[in-house]
Amino acid sequence: MDEMTGENININEQLKEASTNALRCMQCGVCSSSCPSGRHTSLNIRKLVKIAGRSSDILKSDELWMCTTCYNCQERCPRGIDIVDTILKIRSISAYHNIILPEHRAVCQMLLKYGHAVPINDDYKIKRTEMGLEELPETVHKYTDSLNEVKELLTSCGFERFTEDNTDENKTMENTA
Amino acid sequence: MRGLSLFLGCLVPNRYPGIELATKLCLAKMDIDCSDLPGASCCPAPGVFRSFDKTSWLTLASRNIVLSEELERDVLTICNGCFSTLADANHIIQDDEKAKEKVNIHLLKIGRQVKGNIDVRHIIEYLYQEYGPEKISSFVERPLDVRIAVHYGCHLIKPTKDRGLGNSERPVFFDELITALGATSVDYPDKMACCGAGGGMRSAMKERSLKMTEAKLAKIQEAGVDCIVNSCPFCHMQLDSGQDDIKELTGTEFEIPVLHYTQLLGLALGFPAEMLGIDTSIEKNRKLMELLDSQLES
């Protein structure tokens, strides 16, 4: 826990480092007008770019997760800002500090358990065989050794932190952010 | 040219096995050297896992790449998301020696090492660049006189600096692969717009993601097409089963058939719909097949 607290103190530094590119922004709004999500959700990518690196409030913002990573904004930005890449870095800081949507945590649990984000189920096993395919595809689903390799790698990378809901860490975040 | 290994990912084998079968049938009929890639996992998905942690994303992607390196084959993807993850990861491994060293520390624990000596391909750019529309036409046994809304999806072509497939505003290569089969690619507003599924939106904010899908489907419907053709099972799912979700949420019915390019190619190569996983028990798909059958008779 001590280590986590130390990390939390550095949140602002981490955000700053992730967002240096965004300092070039002149708030022209090409990003927002190119954003397919922004037309239908509350995502205002221009505003996100503006606060990126300036405030840890961005980690509490639902809009951080409304980007489909379509790259329109990044392609069209006249200042050449890596907008989507910056969003991804900020999401990682968020996830690392245990601010992660429950549905996304569930997807992480799937990956760790099955090696697939979307694993097979009985209905599709039947569908496969009816089509003349093998019941299980040539993936980790068919080879236990391969699945174990995936699990070992994920453990080696410390991936379990994204599958376990550590509410204590959430509390620490509440106090510092 | 190196041979290929087929990277299945998650959605194709586990939700759309028809796309897996269609791909295998087409590759075999065109005599393209492509093997299985036994033991591969999730790519892992760029929208979610790359968002959370770059290290585990890159390490797992590198394992999938190593499996193909060990076969001395290039990776063939049939999903924009898998292409995005594996092509980006491969570039990092090839260009960033330090990142490669770090990944190999993890991979050593499972007795593997990534080298960075193969390429990652997507079936659309592979067919376009290695065969081209004319040569694809020469394989066609059953020209398909249908009107098609092409959906490129985002990660096939963007970020353009990494993909190298040209400008993302008005690309034509996918359309040319459609016309090569005798079909018409119908232009429609917001053709290059996202389906709405990516970036973890579909998994965590489904209703909001479907608003993007509904807007896109409405434009496609106005254009008057016989079906949508995509290059990605995640876009496929959003545009296909998304129609059912939208009907439930808003009552709006679209009834537009959705095919992956390999399924359309399979039809043009003469395979029957049932062999390609095109569910003809669904009204919208049955209409499309009846249209094609009437052309065959005339």
TrEMBL record, chain B:
<comment type="similarity">
    <text>Belongs to the HdrB family.</text>
</comment>
<protein>
    <submittedName>
        <fullName>CoB--CoM heterodisulfide reductase subunit B</fullName>
        <ecNumber>1.8.98.1</ecNumber>
    </submittedName>
</protein>
<dbReference type="GO" id="GO:0051539">
    <property type="term" value="F:4 iron, 4 sulfur cluster binding"/>
</dbReference>
<keyword id="KW-0560">Oxidoreductase</keyword>
<dbReference type="InterPro" id="IPR051278">
    <property type="entry name" value="HdrB/HdrD_reductase"/>
</dbReference>
<feature type="domain" description="Cysteine-rich">
    <location>
        <begin position="6"/>
        <end position="86"/>
    </location>
</feature>
<keyword id="KW-0484">Methanogenesis</keyword>
<dbReference type="GO" id="GO:0015948">
    <property type="term" value="P:methanogenesis"/>
</dbReference>
<keyword id="KW-0004">4Fe-4S</keyword>
<comment type="pathway">
    <text>Cofactor metabolism; coenzyme M-coenzyme B heterodisulfide reduction; coenzyme B and coenzyme M from coenzyme M-coenzyme B heterodisulfide: step 1/1.</text>
</comment>
<dbReference type="InterPro" id="IPR017678">
    <property type="entry name" value="CoB/CoM_hetero-S_Rdtase_bsu"/>
</dbReference>
<dbReference type="GO" id="GO:0046872">
    <property type="term" value="F:metal ion binding"/>
</dbReference>
<keyword id="KW-0479">Metal-binding</keyword>
<keyword id="KW-0411">Iron-sulfur</keyword>
<dbReference type="GO" id="GO:0051912">
    <property type="term" value="F:CoB--CoM heterodisulfide reductase activity"/>
</dbReference>
<feature type="domain" description="Cysteine-rich">
    <location>
        <begin position="148"/>
        <end position="240"/>
    </location>
</feature>
<keyword id="KW-0408">Iron</keyword>
<dbReference type="InterPro" id="IPR004017">
    <property type="entry name" value="Cys_rich_dom"/>
</dbReference>
<dbReference type="Pfam" id="PF02754">
    <property type="entry name" value="CCG"/>
</dbReference>
